Amino acid sequence: MAYDITLIPGDGIGPELTEATRRVLEATGVKFNWDVVNAGVDVIEKYGTPLPEHVIESIRKNRVALKGPITTPVGYGFRSVNVSLRKMLDLYTCLRPCKSYAGTPTHFNNVDIVIVRENTEDLYAGIEFEQGKSETAEIIQMIERLSGNQIRKDSGISIKPISLTGTERIARFAFEYARANNRKKVTALHKANIMKYSDGLFLAVAREVAEKYADIEFEDRIIDNMTMQMVKNPAQFDVLLCPNLYGDIISDLGAGLVGGLGLAPGANIGDEAALFEPTHGSAPKYKGMNKVNPMAQILSGVMMLRHLKEMEAADRLENAIAAVVREGKSITYDLLPEERRSQAVGTSQVADAIIEKLG
Ligand code: NAD
Predict the structure, then answer these.
(1) Would you kindly state where each structural domain of the chain is located, as residue ranges?
(2) CB 3.0–4.6 Å: which of 132, 279, 284, 353 could bond 12 by disulfide?
(3) In the predicted model, what is the mean pLDDT of the chain?
(4) For ligand 1, atom 39, which residue shows the shortest CA distance?
(5) Tally of CA atoms within 13 A in the half-sphere of 287 that contains its CB
(6) Does domain 1-94+265-359 have CATH number 3.40.718.10?
């Protein structure tokens, strides 16, 4: 049987990375029918929008998508295609493993953390009021009236909604994921001491959900303390349950702990669809140079294989990637120390080396 998968190459470095990933995934022996559709600034002229309806339809139909990064140009009048996709498909979980592979230039060799980030609420909900606008003055007046607090009239306002429903489903996802993947502990991140009604609600609901999973240890950390503990002793953490903003920041911190963005895969998962893409962006300055590391995109492909329950192929592919990193002969510049960067190979050569290891 072949899997119908939506493939969105993206822009910048996206097409090179998704091509490398497509070749590697096919080399596992698993069969795919790729439905290639494009989104981003390059399709605006043709479709009048960076996110054409047929792209959404394809994902809704196939329920699984592999996506390259897409640029969000500054100064255009549309929202990020990436954020829109997550919203339109209600991909409420952002799953980002941070795992150290032997051979990477990093201070830690024992990190194996999975970040479960809420993907639809919080300060990323996109509810904002611009400084100086009449509706902003109105909202300031209303808040002053209802809360009794003063806000400077020349403020801009961003709203941070965190709901019981949104928190409950992400908390349940984190515990279910922990259980299914033999993980021992979930740590919730928050700043509930300051934001009692948003982060406080997040923590209270996480605690309530935790009670239903007695087999999984539960703890919480205030986010500022957490960043210090992550860089001091990351091995103490297992699954991290995060509201949207802290999850975003801690993802890059996690990527830095295991050797950089070139090794940081990700998935956006909802009840109806799942979309697999690396944590990093489109790095436009490297477009078409066959230079950047495809491993984050390929590891996102490994996550996709696991989602499809192709466990054996996923393990084989992850082992092949780990072997290439360990050997250190066919790796891109980002995994090499400064003095050895002249020995770096390109994106497609990394894919070739992984395919060779697959045998
Ligand atoms: P970026 O992640 O694209 O690049 C930052 C730097 O990280 C690069 O200059 C490069 O040095 C390094 N890097 C990134 N990917 C790498 C790889 N695979 N191998 C080696 N090095 C790599 O971040 P940015 O420059 O802030 O964003 C560029 C564009 O991407 C922006 O328009 C942004 O909105 C967009 N973006 C898209 C997504 C997505 O599609 N999901 C995610 C993040 C950013």
Answers:
(1) 1-94+265-359, 107-121+162-257, 127-159
(2) 284
(3) 95
(4) 69
(5) 13
(6) yes
